[in-house]
Amino acid sequence: MARDGHKYIFVIGGVMSGVGKGIASSAMGLLLQSKGFSVNLVKVDPYLNVDAGTMNPTEHGEVFVLNSGLETDQDMGNYERFLNRDLGGEDYMTSGMIYQSVIARERALGYGGKCVEAIPHVRNEILDRFDAAATFNGSDISVIEIGGTVGDFQNALFIDAARVLKMQHPDDVLFVMVSYLPVPGSIGEMKTKPTQNAVRQLNAYGVQPDFLIARSKHPIDAKRKEKIAIACSIRADHVISAPDIESIYDVPLNFESDKLAEQLTDALKLSSKKPTDLAAWKKFVKAVKRTDVPEVKIAVVGKYFDTGDFVLSDAYLSVIEAIKFSGAATRVKPSIHWINAKDLEKGNAAAVLKDYDGIIVPGGFGESGIEGKIKAIEYARTHQVPYFGLCYGMQLLVIEYARNVAKLKGAHTTEIDTETPHPVVAVMESQKENIAQGKFGGSMRLGSYPAKIVKGTIAHGAYKASEISERHRHRYEINPKYVEQLKEAGLVFSGTSPDGVLMEIAEMPKKEHPFMLGTQFHPELKARPLAPHPLFTAFLKAAAAQK
Ligand code: GLN
User: Of all protein residues, whose CA lies closest to atom 1 belonging to ligand 1?
Assistant: First the structure.
């Protein structure tokens, strides 16, 4: 079933979740790519949701949309950012998706009268999808991260599929366990026992890890590497030190000090194409950490604030990273401050926002905090503070402009107010049926669409291009019936769909405001460390000039 000569690295977690399997996988992908191999990264999510689109970002983190329109886990964002390339829908799978295809085939008599079972039918479907991902990418190596922790009930079939692949292609498949070594406060010493047990648990599936990435507070010493080697039958030089570090972007560099790229290619019997070249990556890591550059204070006005800072940064992960990349590129140090939109509703927005150099309203849904966001936008517009609106943030920019400049009293989006006298943002024609029939999963306007950019605008100045392609995730749009009126009131639609029907970017003329711009798409999904997004860069430059 596997393609000849294609190599697979399976990444499996031990001891507990949240130890950084996604980043470890991304870093391995980058290292192998830096040696001249073509790599795709695959995420396996064992949950029964068919995709990540229906999950609340405060619980599950941001929904990351691929070019294909598939709504995925935030790990896919890290993969694309580390590899600096687009991945396909084939590179993401959930148990829900897999069972859905198996059941659909069964309903269509696709199993020729057989009893359909988890093994072999579901397992075969998994193997087919591993193969489809490799074929789609035409890559040399697939790094496949299996979500969850070894011993979970839900991911067992995926581990079993990987075992079968290893059995069929012993030289082409590697297993890497990312495990955790606690340092109990009372003892102050790094303990290996939980990891030893996790390896045994994996052994019970018939799988022996070839590498162990030892996540811990501190670097793992030679004595403990040896202990794990003996207890778990893993070569000591295959136990890789992975201490807590300042930035996730240090991880590949840290792995390189244990020569991980070479170790992996040796273990896969691949002749190294070239020495690992991380020059561009190192330059970026250095730039992102600079402290001798001016600070630019950015206020992010949003609503997913109820569960505290920890969850918050996950809900807006790509936005935060996009700001960082453009900060590194423009030699400023952006600091991000979270403003709860609900808090702005009651009080005086100016008092809260006066110390910031730029304001962002990111994507969102629903009513919560919406008037607070509109207040923040009004403040930015009337005080010449650079403003960048992402999706909902663009729709709200238009609503604020309609209400306060075009004097369309009570202007609103029909997402919130179906009775508004001026529905300047309205449900897309193509979405009406989905909503009426309760078809909410995977049915928004999703994925990459082209747009044309008007010359002489802020958007054109940033992109330096007249045609772009960006990723979307929305059901509502700027109501075509109001476009002329808004233009007459001075708003510029600097980006539209190629046929001119859908408004993709709204901005104020440069003469009137240094940077007042919103996008119907999500530019943050395409921002990369080695390819910062031009609109985030333009926004940060405007914010820095503000100081
Ligand atoms: N709620 C808005 C819509 O559906 C915006 C969506 C978003 O910000 N992703 O159009």
Answer: 365
* pLDDT tops 80 at residue 517: yes
Q: Locate 356 and state its tokens.
A: 């910031």
Q: What is the pTM of this model?
A: 0.95
Instruction: Beginning with the edge strand found earlier in the chain, give each strand of the sheet holding 295-302 in spatial order.
Output: 333-340, 295-302, 358-361, 387-390, 516-519, 503-507, 492-496, 445-453, 467-474
Closest CA to 11 of 173, 225, 234, 182: 173
- In 3D space, the residue among 389, 385, 404, 416 whose CA is nearest the CA of residue 489 turns out to be 404
| CA atoms of 374 and 200, how far apart (whole Å) | 56
Please tell me if the CB atom of residue 91 comes closer than 6 angstroms to any atom of ligand 1: no
Q: Is 522 a catalytic residue?
A: yes
In this predicted structure, the answer to whether residue 304 has a pLDDT above a threshold of 70 is no
Amino acid identity, position 391: C
CB 215 within 8 A of CB 178: yes
Catalytic residue among 145, 391, 412, 477: 391
In 208-343, where do the E strands start and end?
211-216, 239-243, 295-302, 333-340
* List of domains in the chain: 7-281 (3.40.50.300), 290-546 (3.40.50.880)
Alpha-carbon gap, residue 448 to 427, rounded angstroms: 19
Tokens of 423: 């529905």
Residue 120 DSSP one-character state: I
Pairing of strands 71-72, 445-453: unpaired
Percent of the chain with pLDDT over 90: 83
Q: How far is the CA of 183 from the centre of ligand 1 (A)?
A: 44
Contact in structure between 273 and 39 (CB atoms under 8 Å): no
Burial of residue 243, with CB atoms counted within 10 A of its CB: 0-12 exposed, 13-18 middle, 19 or more buried: middle
- The Cα–Cα gap between 14 and 212 comes to 10
Q: Is 422 annotated as catalytic?
A: no
Instruction: Specify the pLDDT at position 275.
Output: 83
Cβ atoms of 309 and 315 closer than 8 Å: no
Residue 399, ligand 1, Cβ within 6 A: no
295 is catalytic: no
Closest by Cα among 28, 7, 19 to 147:
19
In this structure, the residue with its CA closest to atom 7 of ligand 1 is 363
Q: Which residues contact 163 (CB under 8 A, 6 or more apart)?
A: 205, 206, 207
Query: Which numbered atom of ligand 1 lies nearest the CA of 477?
Result: 10
Residue nearest to atom 8 of ligand 1 (CA): 363
